[in-house]
From TrEMBL:
Residues 24-125 form the FAD-binding FR-type domain. One of its GO terms (biological process) is cellular response to oxidative stress. GO terms for molecular function: ferredoxin-NADP+ reductase activity; nucleotide binding. This is ferredoxin--NADP(+) reductase. It comes from Pseudoroseicyclus aestuarii. Belongs to the ferredoxin--NADP reductase type 1 family. Its EC number is 1.18.1.2.
Amino acid sequence: MTTNPATAEHHQDEARAPGKPMPVLPDAQTVTSVRHYSDRLFSFRVTRPQSLRFRSGEFVMIGLMGENGKPLLRAYSIASPAWDEELEFYSIKVQDGPLTSKLQHVQPGDQIILRPKPVGTLVHDALLPGKRLWLFSTGTGFAPFASLLRDPETFEKFDEIIVTHTCRDVDELTYSRELVESIKSDEMLEELLGVEALGKLRYYPTTTREQSGTMGRITTRIEDGSLFSDLGVPALNPEEDRAMVCGSLAFNLDIKALLEQAGLREGANSDPAEFVVEKAFVG
């Protein structure tokens, strides 16, 4: 394992106790790549357990060993599609966060804990058939949509897919912007689905602090109608629109209220309807 700032103290403790065996992480997976987008955001990829089967949009518990010798785990949406041979995650950096203060320092070759029991509500099974799919996200809440947007089923089920991503600053949109661009030029998806299918995808980024092409909270742009006029689509309606929501708790509640005001009902795996909200994501 590569020594890094997050694990240096742990290794020093081990050095003080010669003869003590190095602990083996339970459900360990190996980091294969890491990319930092800003001082607040990074993504990383890890090996995938051979037994892991999941639906695009689901999350798993991942983490590291805590200082007390017990696993420190958090729910992380899988950002890679179900067909990918590796698993990708997109994370915020919280300098004093119990987990992310350490997780942000992982390097290729390091190990993390990954509990292979995927769950979640942001799945196609929880939505009724519709014409237009809205994916509303803030910050790292874009992660499950990174999985769903690379799943052929998403393009097969809907005539139009609109993903909105709201962040404070422009550099925080890098992950989503590059991913959407890569999908539109993905030769494998193009061969599988056709150029016309990839044309269904529309990307609507906004910023709330730094100046950009589209400013403001997405909730405001829904309320004043500018979101729909910008895109040339009708206002939300339960006959055509389906939605998935993933962001901060306040954002989720605000979007949920607007969707219900438009006549859409919240669905679940056991009772599909017009929209779903990821309740496990609160950051």
